[in-house]
Amino acid sequence: MATVKSLYKRPAIDEMESIVVPGCGKVPGEAKPDLGRRSKPAPQYARPSHDGTREMPSANPMISLFERAALEAGKAIMEVRDAGAHVTMKSDASPVTEADERAERIILDHLHAAYPDIPVIAEESVAAGRVPETDGGSFFLVDPLDGTREFIAASDEFTVNIALIEAGVPTAGIVYAPAKATAYTGADGHAEKLHVGANFEVDRRETIFTKPAGGDTVALISRSHNSPETDAYLTEKRFPSKRAIGSSLKFCVLAEGEADVYPRFGCIMQWDTAAGDAVLRAAGGMTLGLDGKPLPYGDTGEDTGSGFGNQCFIAWGKAPG
After folding, report:
1. Tens-place pLDDT, residues 199-222
2. What is the H or E stretch that residue 249 is in?
3. Which terminus of the chain has fewer Cβ atoms in its 10 Å neighbourhood, N or C?
4. Residue 319, pLDDT score
């Protein structure tokens, strides 16, 4: 199997405190992470302008590949939306449209052409019974249209998600919201927000960072998949404000410092979270499972049909000290 140069070093986590949330058992409260030192210097990126933006392509070849695939897929999604999407239901009662299918074909073509030996776990392929073996090695996770319900409801909060997983860690990812003309990328400790033009090309980029700990905590919840367990956690922690957002954009809002925490209790698939998690980690944040360790990726044995389900988690911009 082809190998991919590691782009991200897993953080170490310690000193976890827990609370109890009904239906989810113990949940980490305040994590005190030791992010450690990266084993190599950060790559040299194009010099930003005075306002922190730049226009040159990404210096990371994996991110450049993800950008090309996501932007083309996003264009196809918008064409379907403009023409009117036809909705059908999958066996798990979740909706799917031709936009999901067209976008996935585009992304798979890009990934297979560039890395034919790296398996791809993609949502619609898995739904059709095509689940390649990953054998504990590197693989891609793809959600061609995350937030299908938002897409159907004419909301702008749907995304294209592509991530690289290495040794169970999301080391590179892109989250592209075509209706918002915005994308987010993350790899090797560097995260960016991309402003996309009407021609579906990147107009400019800006480096983003998570919000420093302190001040009033802003919590994020799912617009379409909130749960009583999540509400119980928020009530227990007494966070002063919360916002409902669709799709993997919640990770990106954390990554650009607009919120502090995103708890998720209940079934969610790895292709829903991997790309946003990669962006968040690159921006300085983290996503923790209920054991207080970084959320793992790969065949975890979660009872979701494919083996690529996620456990409950809490994503942090910066863990409270």
Report:
1. 999 999 999 999 987 788 999 998
2. helix 249-255
3. C
4. 65
- What residues does 245 pair with on adjacent strands? 222
Residue type, 100: D
- Is pLDDT at 1 greater than 80 in this prediction? no
Domain of 82: which CATH number? 3.30.540.10
Structure tokens at 303: 């009872």
> For residue range 83-124, what is the model confidence (pLDDT) as tens digits?
988 888 877 667 888 999 999 999 999 999 999 999 999 999
Residue 139 corresponds to which tokens in the numbers above? 């693989």
What residues contact residue 214 under an 8 Å CB cut-off, 6+ apart? Answer: none
76 lies in a domain?
yes
Element (H, E) at 295: none
Average pLDDT over residues 276-299: 95
CA distances (Å), 134 to each of 8, 138, 276, in order?
19, 7, 21
Model-level pTM?
Answer: 0.82
Instruction: DSSP for 24-36, please give it.
Output: TEEEE-S-EEE--
Contact 315, 250 (CB under 8 A): yes
Angle at 45 (CA atoms; ends 47, 260), nearest 5 degrees: 95
Contacts of residue 96, Cβ cutoff 8 Å, sequence gap at least 6: 87, 88, 89, 90, 124, 127, 148
| Domain presence at residue 293 | yes
Q: How is residue 149 written in tokens?
A: 């319900």
Q: Which structural domain, as residue segments, surrounds residue 233? A: 16-31+209-316
